[in-house]
Specification:
Length: 174
């Protein structure tokens, strides 16, 4: 009778263990290469960065609002893309707290104006001075939301206002 050859289970285990060890070593080497490459790249980036950021410069660190309890909403009603954002940055630079920036319901306002809930001189004069406006640009709206002190609606004349030259110069600084 012919004898059957049987393969013992122990003879296949060393091959599986060798393959597992090889795969584990390969994974470790790959991870080490990735980490080493990352370290070299980071070192080069930090050491050769010619554009250093000066964190102590006043333009970099946002200032706290100078006028407490004065909250402004800037709305673009002129149709010129990005105009509300430009005026927002200007007002923040002047120390005002601009809560929201966005588009007005319509894009065809002929003139820029400010909606106010309170017409007291103490509240109005800093904004009128910052915007170089007279009281002709003010509209009283007692039904305006409580959390907003002023709503600046930019009209078609917003790029011809006195403060627009300052806004353009601010834009060129960055």
């Amino acid at each position: 009778m012919a004898q059957k050859k049987t393969v013992s289970p122990q003879s296949s285990k060393p091959n599986q263990i060798d393959i597992q060890r090889w795969l584990l070593n390969f994974a470790i080497v790959c991870i080490a290469v990735v980490i080493f490459t990352f370290m070299i790249s980071s070192t080069k980036r930090f050491s050769s960065n010619s554009k250093k950021i000066d964190l102590s410069s006043p333009g970099f660190i946002p200032q706290m609002p100078k006028y407490e309890d004065v909250y402004i909403e800037v709305l673009n009603g002129c149709g010129i893309t990005g105009m509300a954002g430009k005026y927002t940055e200007y007002l923040r630079m002047k120390g005002f707290d601009v809560l929201t920036t966005g588009n007005a319901k319509e894009m065809n306002y002929p003139e820029t104006f400010i909606l106010v809930r309170d017409t007291s001189e103490a509240i109005l004069s800093p904004l009128l001075e910052a915007m170089s406006f007279s009281r002709d640009h003010i509209e009283f709206n007692p039904a305006m939301e409580d959390y907003i002190t002023f709503r600046l609606i930019l009209g078609k004349d917003c790029d011809r206002l006195t403060v627009f030259e300052t806004i353009k110069n601010m834009e060129n600084q960055f």
